[in-house]
Amino acid sequence: MLGKIAHKHIKNVTIQEKVHEQILTVVELATVYDTVVIRFCFSTGALDPTLNPVRRTIMIKAVKFVSIPVRDQEQALAFYTEKLGFQILTDQPFDAKQRWIELRIPGSDTRVVLFTPPGHEDRIGTFSNVTFMTDDIDRTHQELTARGVVFTAPPTKQPWGQFAKFQDIDGNQFVLSTK
Quick one: 49 and 10 in the same domain? Predict the structure, then answer.
């Protein structure tokens, strides 16, 4: 549906109408030769903050970090920096038992935290739902193997891409995949 309002000095336009029990909401507003062109869409209130309280807040934009449970933070730090090539962003005391170690994957906004929440020690050495990505899985597999990273499954081709499985010094298991 396309509606037009001819006016030379329009500052704000808000149009919402109920049509067939759905909300008609303005999703695009453009001025073309002194005419405001309004494009509508039908929604159940998802775009109307008064009808959907979730839209009043800023929505999730990314994954900031993933936490990897480890037994010995010093050994884990050496593994992730020396063998995988991650970079230290933060390494500071957290409590009497642990440090907050936040690492950066070069070229990525996602961070990795080497930290075990109290009561979650049983997660150390298990399969992780973290999948790391590479452009060239064969070259990455070869280079990481040369650095001493243990692969539990070699690069394997699938219809959706390639993957391999490796583990860290604590036995945490990860997938390495192509895009």
Answer: yes
